[in-house]
Amino acid sequence: MSASKKPHLNIVVTGHVDNGKSTTVGHLLVDLGAIDQRTIDAYAKESEATGKGDTFKYAWVMDSIKDERERGITIDLAFQKFETSKYFFTLIDAPGHKDFIKNMITGASEADAAILVISVKPGETEASIEPGGQGREHAFLAKTLGVGQIVVALNKMDDVGYQEARYKEVKDSVEKMLKSVGFNVAKVNFVPVSGWKGDNLVKRGDNMPWYKGPTLAEALDAFEPPEKPIGKPLRVPIQDVYTITGVGTVPVGRVETGKMRPNDKVVVMPSGAVGEIKSIETHHTVLESAEAGDNVGFNLRGVDKKQIKRGDIIGPADNPPAVAKEFEARIIVISHPTAIAPGYTPVLHAHTAQVAATISHFVSKIDPRTGATTEENPKFLKTGDAAIVKIKPVRPLAIETFKDFPEIGRFALRDMGTTIAAGVVLNITEKYDPNKK
Ligand SMILES: Nc1nc2c(ncn2[C@@H]2O[C@H](COP(=O)(O)OP(=O)(O)OP(=O)(O)O)[C@@H](O)[C@H]2O)c(=O)[nH]1
Fold it and tell me: Where do the coiled-coil regions begin and end (predicted)?
Protein backbone atom coordinates (compact mmCIF):
# COMPACT_ATOMS: atom_id res chain seq x y z
CA MET A 1 0.00 0.00 0.00
CA SER A 2 1.33 3.42 -0.85
CA ALA A 3 1.87 5.91 1.90
CA SER A 4 0.23 8.41 -0.41
CA LYS A 5 -2.25 10.80 1.13
CA LYS A 6 -3.71 11.59 -2.27
CA PRO A 7 -7.40 10.96 -2.73
CA HIS A 8 -8.17 7.52 -4.06
CA LEU A 9 -10.13 6.63 -7.20
CA ASN A 10 -11.14 3.24 -8.56
CA ILE A 11 -10.88 3.16 -12.32
CA VAL A 12 -11.95 0.73 -15.03
CA VAL A 13 -10.63 0.52 -18.56
CA THR A 14 -13.25 -0.15 -21.16
CA GLY A 15 -13.53 -0.39 -24.92
CA HIS A 16 -14.03 -2.72 -27.83
CA VAL A 17 -11.78 -5.72 -28.31
CA ASP A 18 -8.51 -4.81 -30.05
CA ASN A 19 -8.96 -1.05 -29.75
CA GLY A 20 -5.79 -1.07 -27.65
CA LYS A 21 -6.86 -1.05 -24.00
CA SER A 22 -3.99 -3.24 -22.84
CA THR A 23 -1.38 -1.42 -24.89
CA THR A 24 -2.55 2.02 -23.79
CA VAL A 25 -2.88 1.27 -20.10
CA GLY A 26 0.28 -0.84 -20.00
CA HIS A 27 2.24 2.03 -21.56
CA LEU A 28 0.57 4.59 -19.29
CA LEU A 29 1.62 2.59 -16.21
CA VAL A 30 5.19 2.42 -17.48
CA ASP A 31 5.33 6.16 -18.22
CA LEU A 32 3.89 6.95 -14.81
CA GLY A 33 6.61 4.85 -13.25
CA ALA A 34 4.24 2.23 -11.82
CA ILE A 35 6.27 -0.48 -13.57
CA ASP A 36 10.05 -0.34 -13.86
CA GLN A 37 12.06 -0.54 -17.06
CA ARG A 38 13.59 -3.91 -16.16
CA THR A 39 10.17 -5.52 -15.92
CA ILE A 40 9.08 -4.02 -19.18
CA ASP A 41 12.29 -5.16 -20.90
CA ALA A 42 11.57 -8.67 -19.74
CA TYR A 43 8.09 -8.40 -21.20
CA ALA A 44 9.52 -7.12 -24.46
CA LYS A 45 11.74 -10.22 -24.67
CA GLU A 46 8.85 -12.55 -23.94
CA SER A 47 6.74 -10.70 -26.44
CA GLU A 48 9.39 -10.99 -29.15
CA ALA A 49 9.86 -14.66 -28.41
CA THR A 50 6.24 -15.28 -29.32
CA GLY A 51 6.72 -13.55 -32.65
CA LYS A 52 4.41 -10.69 -31.75
CA GLY A 53 7.24 -8.23 -31.76
CA ASP A 54 8.33 -5.48 -29.49
CA THR A 55 5.13 -3.45 -29.90
CA PHE A 56 3.24 -5.97 -27.87
CA LYS A 57 5.26 -5.44 -24.71
CA TYR A 58 2.86 -2.95 -23.19
CA ALA A 59 -0.15 -5.15 -23.77
CA TRP A 60 1.91 -7.87 -22.15
CA VAL A 61 1.96 -5.97 -18.89
CA MET A 62 -1.82 -6.11 -18.76
CA ASP A 63 -2.01 -9.65 -20.06
CA SER A 64 0.18 -10.89 -17.25
CA ILE A 65 -2.17 -9.28 -14.76
CA LYS A 66 -5.02 -11.15 -16.40
CA ASP A 67 -3.13 -14.45 -16.32
CA GLU A 68 -2.21 -14.04 -12.71
CA ARG A 69 -5.78 -13.20 -11.85
CA GLU A 70 -7.11 -16.16 -13.73
CA ARG A 71 -4.70 -18.46 -11.96
CA GLY A 72 -5.60 -16.94 -8.63
CA ILE A 73 -2.11 -15.73 -7.87
CA THR A 74 -1.62 -12.68 -5.73
CA ILE A 75 -0.58 -9.96 -8.05
CA ASP A 76 2.21 -7.54 -7.50
CA LEU A 77 0.37 -4.53 -6.20
CA ALA A 78 2.40 -2.21 -8.41
CA PHE A 79 0.50 -3.55 -11.38
CA GLN A 80 -2.87 -2.53 -10.09
CA LYS A 81 -2.05 0.71 -8.38
CA PHE A 82 -0.66 3.86 -9.87
CA GLU A 83 -0.43 7.51 -9.06
CA THR A 84 -0.84 10.70 -10.99
CA SER A 85 0.10 14.03 -9.47
CA LYS A 86 -3.32 14.40 -7.85
CA TYR A 87 -4.71 10.90 -7.33
CA PHE A 88 -3.94 7.43 -6.21
CA PHE A 89 -5.66 4.98 -8.58
CA THR A 90 -6.67 1.36 -8.27
CA LEU A 91 -7.25 -0.36 -11.56
CA ILE A 92 -10.23 -2.45 -10.59
CA ASP A 93 -10.35 -4.63 -13.62
CA ALA A 94 -7.68 -5.44 -16.12
CA PRO A 95 -8.77 -4.95 -19.71
CA GLY A 96 -10.16 -7.93 -21.49
CA HIS A 97 -11.19 -9.65 -18.29
CA LYS A 98 -14.01 -12.08 -19.05
CA ASP A 99 -16.25 -11.11 -16.23
CA PHE A 100 -15.68 -7.41 -16.54
CA ILE A 101 -19.38 -6.59 -16.63
CA LYS A 102 -20.30 -8.66 -13.63
CA ASN A 103 -17.33 -7.31 -11.71
CA MET A 104 -18.26 -3.80 -12.61
CA ILE A 105 -21.67 -4.32 -11.06
CA THR A 106 -21.03 -6.51 -8.07
CA GLY A 107 -17.30 -6.90 -8.04
CA ALA A 108 -14.44 -6.22 -5.72
CA SER A 109 -15.26 -2.55 -5.74
CA GLU A 110 -17.13 0.06 -7.64
CA ALA A 111 -15.56 2.19 -10.29
CA ASP A 112 -15.49 5.93 -9.67
CA ALA A 113 -14.33 6.63 -13.20
CA ALA A 114 -13.66 4.97 -16.52
CA ILE A 115 -11.17 5.24 -19.37
CA LEU A 116 -12.90 4.46 -22.64
CA VAL A 117 -10.39 3.47 -25.30
CA ILE A 118 -11.59 3.92 -28.87
CA SER A 119 -9.43 3.29 -31.91
CA VAL A 120 -9.38 5.97 -34.60
CA LYS A 121 -8.50 3.36 -37.22
CA PRO A 122 -11.23 3.36 -39.89
CA GLY A 123 -13.44 0.33 -39.35
CA GLU A 124 -12.37 -0.16 -35.72
CA THR A 125 -14.06 3.05 -34.62
CA GLU A 126 -17.36 2.05 -36.16
CA ALA A 127 -17.21 -1.50 -34.78
CA SER A 128 -16.76 -0.04 -31.30
CA ILE A 129 -19.43 2.64 -31.22
CA GLU A 130 -22.19 1.35 -33.46
CA PRO A 131 -25.06 -0.58 -31.86
CA GLY A 132 -23.65 -3.90 -30.68
CA GLY A 133 -20.14 -2.46 -30.24
CA GLN A 134 -18.47 -2.86 -26.88
CA GLY A 135 -17.42 0.77 -26.73
CA ARG A 136 -21.08 1.73 -26.78
CA GLU A 137 -22.07 -1.11 -24.44
CA HIS A 138 -19.44 -0.17 -21.87
CA ALA A 139 -20.35 3.53 -22.03
CA PHE A 140 -23.97 2.54 -21.51
CA LEU A 141 -23.17 0.35 -18.54
CA ALA A 142 -20.93 2.94 -16.97
CA LYS A 143 -23.74 5.46 -17.20
CA THR A 144 -26.44 3.09 -15.92
CA LEU A 145 -24.31 1.98 -13.01
CA GLY A 146 -23.49 5.47 -11.92
CA VAL A 147 -19.88 5.66 -13.12
CA GLY A 148 -20.38 9.25 -14.15
CA GLN A 149 -16.83 10.29 -14.95
CA ILE A 150 -15.22 9.16 -18.12
CA VAL A 151 -12.22 10.08 -20.25
CA VAL A 152 -12.03 8.99 -23.87
CA ALA A 153 -8.63 7.93 -25.22
CA LEU A 154 -8.78 8.12 -29.01
CA ASN A 155 -6.09 5.57 -29.69
CA LYS A 156 -3.86 4.53 -32.59
CA MET A 157 -3.32 8.11 -33.75
CA ASP A 158 0.02 6.92 -35.22
CA ASP A 159 -1.97 4.69 -37.55
CA VAL A 160 -3.74 7.67 -39.16
CA GLY A 161 -0.66 9.84 -39.55
CA TYR A 162 -1.58 11.84 -36.40
CA GLN A 163 -4.13 13.75 -38.47
CA GLU A 164 -6.28 16.31 -36.73
CA ALA A 165 -9.06 15.77 -39.27
CA ARG A 166 -9.45 12.11 -38.31
CA TYR A 167 -9.33 13.03 -34.60
CA LYS A 168 -12.17 15.53 -35.11
CA GLU A 169 -14.21 13.08 -37.12
CA VAL A 170 -13.96 10.32 -34.52
CA LYS A 171 -14.45 12.75 -31.64
CA ASP A 172 -17.71 13.91 -33.25
CA SER A 173 -19.09 10.42 -33.62
CA VAL A 174 -18.03 9.36 -30.12
CA GLU A 175 -19.60 12.52 -28.72
CA LYS A 176 -22.87 11.66 -30.43
CA MET A 177 -22.74 8.14 -29.07
CA LEU A 178 -22.00 9.34 -25.52
CA LYS A 179 -24.81 11.89 -25.71
CA SER A 180 -27.24 9.19 -26.81
CA VAL A 181 -26.21 7.19 -23.77
CA GLY A 182 -26.81 10.19 -21.50
CA PHE A 183 -23.36 11.65 -20.81
CA ASN A 184 -22.78 15.38 -20.53
CA VAL A 185 -20.02 15.55 -23.15
CA ALA A 186 -19.02 19.07 -22.17
CA LYS A 187 -17.32 17.44 -19.19
CA VAL A 188 -15.60 14.69 -21.14
CA ASN A 189 -11.99 14.95 -22.35
CA PHE A 190 -11.14 13.35 -25.70
CA VAL A 191 -7.40 12.73 -25.73
CA PRO A 192 -5.71 11.69 -28.99
CA VAL A 193 -3.10 9.08 -28.05
CA SER A 194 -0.90 6.37 -29.38
CA GLY A 195 -0.83 3.62 -26.80
CA TRP A 196 1.95 2.05 -28.78
CA LYS A 197 4.21 5.08 -29.34
CA GLY A 198 3.23 6.84 -26.13
CA ASP A 199 1.99 10.19 -27.48
CA ASN A 200 -0.16 12.15 -25.02
CA LEU A 201 -0.18 9.47 -22.34
CA VAL A 202 2.14 11.28 -19.92
CA LYS A 203 4.43 13.00 -22.38
CA ARG A 204 3.04 15.19 -25.10
CA GLY A 205 5.55 14.44 -27.87
CA ASP A 206 5.87 16.38 -31.13
CA ASN A 207 3.47 14.49 -33.34
CA MET A 208 0.25 16.36 -32.56
CA PRO A 209 1.11 20.06 -32.16
CA TRP A 210 -2.50 20.87 -33.09
CA TYR A 211 -3.79 19.29 -29.88
CA LYS A 212 -3.96 21.71 -26.96
CA GLY A 213 -5.98 19.65 -24.47
CA PRO A 214 -4.77 17.55 -21.54
CA THR A 215 -2.67 14.38 -21.81
CA LEU A 216 -4.31 11.20 -20.58
CA ALA A 217 -2.57 11.56 -17.20
CA GLU A 218 -3.73 15.19 -16.93
CA ALA A 219 -7.25 14.14 -17.89
CA LEU A 220 -7.20 11.61 -15.04
CA ASP A 221 -6.23 14.43 -12.71
CA ALA A 222 -9.22 16.41 -13.96
CA PHE A 223 -11.64 13.90 -12.40
CA GLU A 224 -13.55 14.99 -9.32
CA PRO A 225 -12.78 13.12 -6.10
CA PRO A 226 -15.63 10.77 -5.18
CA GLU A 227 -17.82 11.70 -2.28
CA LYS A 228 -17.62 9.25 0.55
CA PRO A 229 -21.15 8.35 1.63
CA ILE A 230 -20.34 8.75 5.31
CA GLY A 231 -23.41 10.78 6.19
CA LYS A 232 -25.80 8.00 5.16
CA PRO A 233 -27.10 5.27 7.44
CA LEU A 234 -24.75 2.33 7.97
CA ARG A 235 -24.88 -0.48 5.41
CA VAL A 236 -22.43 -3.38 5.43
CA PRO A 237 -23.06 -6.23 2.98
CA ILE A 238 -21.62 -9.37 4.49
CA GLN A 239 -18.85 -11.14 2.61
CA ASP A 240 -18.11 -13.96 5.04
CA VAL A 241 -18.83 -15.01 8.58
CA TYR A 242 -16.33 -16.63 10.92
CA THR A 243 -16.77 -18.13 14.33
CA ILE A 244 -13.69 -17.55 16.41
CA THR A 245 -13.27 -19.41 19.68
CA GLY A 246 -13.36 -17.05 22.61
CA VAL A 247 -14.51 -14.17 20.41
CA GLY A 248 -17.77 -15.32 18.83
CA THR A 249 -19.36 -14.35 15.54
CA VAL A 250 -17.06 -12.33 13.29
CA PRO A 251 -18.63 -11.12 10.04
CA VAL A 252 -16.45 -9.41 7.44
CA GLY A 253 -17.45 -7.01 4.70
CA ARG A 254 -17.00 -3.55 3.32
CA VAL A 255 -18.74 -0.61 4.91
CA GLU A 256 -20.57 0.78 1.87
CA THR A 257 -22.21 3.72 3.59
CA GLY A 258 -22.19 5.36 7.00
CA LYS A 259 -20.01 4.69 10.02
CA MET A 260 -19.64 1.94 12.54
CA ARG A 261 -18.36 2.14 16.13
CA PRO A 262 -18.05 -0.28 19.02
CA ASN A 263 -21.22 -0.38 21.15
CA ASP A 264 -23.42 0.40 18.12
CA LYS A 265 -26.65 -1.58 18.09
CA VAL A 266 -27.10 -3.16 14.70
CA VAL A 267 -29.54 -5.44 12.96
CA VAL A 268 -28.81 -8.21 10.44
CA MET A 269 -31.23 -8.41 7.53
CA PRO A 270 -33.10 -10.50 6.37
CA SER A 271 -32.94 -12.47 9.67
CA GLY A 272 -33.72 -9.43 11.83
CA ALA A 273 -31.23 -10.56 14.48
CA VAL A 274 -30.12 -7.66 16.67
CA GLY A 275 -26.62 -7.43 18.12
CA GLU A 276 -23.97 -5.10 19.36
CA ILE A 277 -20.62 -4.30 17.75
CA LYS A 278 -17.91 -5.14 20.24
CA SER A 279 -14.74 -4.47 18.27
CA ILE A 280 -13.68 -3.66 14.73
CA GLU A 281 -10.54 -4.73 12.92
CA THR A 282 -8.90 -4.22 9.57
CA HIS A 283 -5.76 -6.08 8.51
CA HIS A 284 -5.17 -7.15 12.13
CA THR A 285 -5.34 -3.58 13.40
CA VAL A 286 -8.01 -2.58 15.89
CA LEU A 287 -10.08 0.36 14.72
CA GLU A 288 -11.94 2.86 16.89
CA SER A 289 -14.45 3.27 14.11
CA ALA A 290 -14.95 2.30 10.49
CA GLU A 291 -16.50 4.30 7.69
CA ALA A 292 -17.63 4.02 4.10
CA GLY A 293 -14.92 2.39 2.02
CA ASP A 294 -13.30 0.38 4.86
CA ASN A 295 -13.04 -3.39 4.64
CA VAL A 296 -13.50 -4.70 8.15
CA GLY A 297 -14.07 -7.69 10.36
CA PHE A 298 -16.02 -7.10 13.54
CA ASN A 299 -17.14 -8.97 16.60
CA LEU A 300 -20.90 -9.02 16.76
CA ARG A 301 -22.30 -9.91 20.16
CA GLY A 302 -25.79 -11.36 20.46
CA VAL A 303 -25.99 -12.75 16.94
CA ASP A 304 -25.70 -16.46 16.36
CA LYS A 305 -23.77 -17.75 13.36
CA LYS A 306 -27.02 -19.18 11.99
CA GLN A 307 -28.60 -15.73 11.84
CA ILE A 308 -26.04 -14.18 9.51
CA LYS A 309 -24.53 -15.23 6.21
CA ARG A 310 -22.92 -13.97 3.04
CA GLY A 311 -25.29 -11.64 1.15
CA ASP A 312 -26.98 -10.28 4.30
CA ILE A 313 -26.73 -6.58 5.12
CA ILE A 314 -26.07 -4.99 8.50
CA GLY A 315 -27.51 -1.61 9.40
CA PRO A 316 -28.45 0.40 12.50
CA ALA A 317 -31.09 -1.32 14.67
CA ASP A 318 -33.29 1.77 14.31
CA ASN A 319 -32.81 2.06 10.55
CA PRO A 320 -32.68 -1.49 9.18
CA PRO A 321 -31.70 -2.32 5.60
CA ALA A 322 -34.63 -3.09 3.32
CA VAL A 323 -35.54 -6.64 2.41
CA ALA A 324 -37.41 -7.33 -0.80
CA LYS A 325 -39.81 -10.09 -1.73
CA GLU A 326 -40.40 -8.23 -4.95
CA PHE A 327 -38.93 -5.09 -6.48
CA GLU A 328 -39.26 -2.95 -9.55
CA ALA A 329 -36.10 -2.39 -11.56
CA ARG A 330 -34.78 -0.82 -14.69
CA ILE A 331 -32.71 -3.31 -16.65
CA ILE A 332 -30.75 -3.43 -19.87
CA VAL A 333 -30.46 -6.73 -21.67
CA ILE A 334 -26.75 -6.98 -22.40
CA SER A 335 -26.60 -10.30 -24.12
CA HIS A 336 -29.06 -13.11 -24.65
CA PRO A 337 -28.91 -15.59 -27.54
CA THR A 338 -32.65 -15.32 -28.23
CA ALA A 339 -35.14 -13.39 -26.11
CA ILE A 340 -36.31 -13.47 -22.52
CA ALA A 341 -39.95 -13.73 -21.48
CA PRO A 342 -41.68 -13.19 -18.11
CA GLY A 343 -40.99 -16.11 -15.78
CA TYR A 344 -37.30 -16.25 -16.72
CA THR A 345 -35.24 -17.10 -13.62
CA PRO A 346 -31.52 -16.28 -13.87
CA VAL A 347 -29.20 -15.73 -10.88
CA LEU A 348 -29.22 -12.24 -9.45
CA HIS A 349 -25.90 -10.86 -8.21
CA ALA A 350 -26.08 -7.76 -6.06
CA HIS A 351 -23.43 -6.54 -3.57
CA THR A 352 -22.32 -9.80 -1.91
CA ALA A 353 -25.61 -11.64 -2.53
CA GLN A 354 -26.38 -14.29 -5.12
CA VAL A 355 -29.89 -15.62 -5.42
CA ALA A 356 -32.08 -17.10 -8.14
CA ALA A 357 -34.68 -14.51 -9.09
CA THR A 358 -37.66 -14.58 -11.41
CA ILE A 359 -38.39 -11.68 -13.72
CA SER A 360 -42.09 -11.97 -13.04
CA HIS A 361 -43.48 -9.13 -15.10
CA PHE A 362 -42.34 -6.82 -17.88
CA VAL A 363 -43.95 -3.47 -17.07
CA SER A 364 -42.70 -1.49 -20.06
CA LYS A 365 -40.01 -1.23 -22.65
CA ILE A 366 -38.21 2.12 -22.52
CA ASP A 367 -36.01 4.23 -24.70
CA PRO A 368 -32.64 3.79 -22.98
CA ARG A 369 -31.72 7.37 -23.83
CA THR A 370 -34.73 9.26 -22.55
CA GLY A 371 -36.41 6.71 -20.31
CA ALA A 372 -39.67 7.27 -22.21
CA THR A 373 -41.98 4.27 -22.53
CA THR A 374 -41.95 2.75 -25.99
CA GLU A 375 -44.18 -0.26 -25.29
CA GLU A 376 -46.44 -1.31 -22.39
CA ASN A 377 -46.33 -4.92 -21.18
CA PRO A 378 -43.88 -6.21 -23.78
CA LYS A 379 -44.02 -9.97 -24.34
CA PHE A 380 -40.28 -10.43 -24.64
CA LEU A 381 -36.98 -8.56 -24.40
CA LYS A 382 -33.89 -9.06 -26.49
CA THR A 383 -30.29 -7.88 -26.48
CA GLY A 384 -30.05 -4.10 -26.33
CA ASP A 385 -33.54 -3.57 -24.90
CA ALA A 386 -34.07 -1.48 -21.80
CA ALA A 387 -37.15 -2.11 -19.67
CA ILE A 388 -38.91 -1.64 -16.36
CA VAL A 389 -39.56 -5.06 -14.84
CA LYS A 390 -40.68 -6.71 -11.60
CA ILE A 391 -38.27 -9.15 -10.02
CA LYS A 392 -38.99 -11.75 -7.35
CA PRO A 393 -35.95 -13.30 -5.67
CA VAL A 394 -36.75 -16.90 -4.69
CA ARG A 395 -36.04 -15.94 -1.08
CA PRO A 396 -36.13 -12.53 0.61
CA LEU A 397 -33.15 -10.41 -0.40
CA ALA A 398 -31.60 -7.52 1.51
CA ILE A 399 -31.24 -4.76 -1.07
CA GLU A 400 -31.85 -1.02 -1.39
CA THR A 401 -33.06 1.35 -4.07
CA PHE A 402 -30.38 2.74 -6.35
CA LYS A 403 -31.56 6.26 -5.59
CA ASP A 404 -30.88 5.94 -1.86
CA PHE A 405 -27.93 3.54 -1.90
CA PRO A 406 -26.34 3.30 -5.36
CA GLU A 407 -23.61 1.10 -3.88
CA ILE A 408 -26.14 -1.59 -3.00
CA GLY A 409 -29.03 -0.96 -5.39
CA ARG A 410 -27.51 -2.31 -8.58
CA PHE A 411 -27.35 -5.86 -9.83
CA ALA A 412 -26.44 -8.24 -12.63
CA LEU A 413 -28.59 -11.11 -13.91
CA ARG A 414 -26.49 -14.06 -14.97
CA ASP A 415 -27.22 -17.33 -16.66
CA MET A 416 -25.10 -19.92 -18.47
CA GLY A 417 -21.92 -18.22 -17.30
CA THR A 418 -22.62 -14.84 -18.85
CA THR A 419 -24.21 -11.60 -17.83
CA ILE A 420 -27.64 -11.44 -19.41
CA ALA A 421 -28.70 -8.09 -18.02
CA ALA A 422 -27.69 -5.34 -15.63
CA GLY A 423 -30.00 -3.11 -13.70
CA VAL A 424 -30.83 -0.85 -10.83
CA VAL A 425 -33.54 -1.13 -8.15
CA LEU A 426 -36.22 1.56 -8.51
CA ASN A 427 -38.76 0.54 -5.85
CA ILE A 428 -39.21 -2.22 -3.38
CA THR A 429 -42.77 -3.24 -4.20
CA GLU A 430 -43.17 -5.98 -1.62
CA LYS A 431 -41.20 -5.81 1.61
CA TYR A 432 -40.33 -8.70 3.85
CA ASP A 433 -40.70 -8.28 7.60
CA PRO A 434 -38.74 -10.86 9.62
CA ASN A 435 -41.10 -10.33 12.55
CA LYS A 436 -44.18 -11.30 10.52
CA LYS A 437 -43.20 -14.55 8.90
N1 LIG B 1 -0.68 1.32 -34.49
C2 LIG B 1 -1.09 1.12 -33.26
N3 LIG B 1 -1.47 -0.11 -32.87
C4 LIG B 1 -1.89 -0.28 -31.61
C5 LIG B 1 -1.94 0.79 -30.68
N6 LIG B 1 -2.42 0.32 -29.52
C7 LIG B 1 -2.66 -0.99 -29.72
N8 LIG B 1 -2.33 -1.36 -30.97
C9 LIG B 1 -2.45 -2.71 -31.55
O10 LIG B 1 -3.80 -3.10 -31.54
C11 LIG B 1 -3.94 -4.48 -31.21
C12 LIG B 1 -4.81 -4.65 -29.98
O13 LIG B 1 -4.17 -4.07 -28.86
P14 LIG B 1 -4.49 -4.54 -27.38
O15 LIG B 1 -3.82 -3.59 -26.49
O16 LIG B 1 -4.19 -5.99 -27.20
O17 LIG B 1 -6.05 -4.33 -27.40
P18 LIG B 1 -7.15 -4.58 -26.27
O19 LIG B 1 -8.20 -3.58 -26.51
O20 LIG B 1 -6.53 -4.59 -24.94
O21 LIG B 1 -7.65 -5.97 -26.65
P22 LIG B 1 -8.34 -7.08 -25.69
O23 LIG B 1 -7.56 -7.15 -24.42
O24 LIG B 1 -8.20 -8.31 -26.55
O25 LIG B 1 -9.74 -6.62 -25.51
C26 LIG B 1 -2.51 -5.00 -31.01
O27 LIG B 1 -2.07 -5.57 -32.21
C28 LIG B 1 -1.73 -3.74 -30.70
O29 LIG B 1 -0.36 -3.86 -31.03
C30 LIG B 1 -1.50 2.08 -31.13
O31 LIG B 1 -1.48 3.08 -30.41
N32 LIG B 1 -1.09 2.18 -32.43
Answer: none
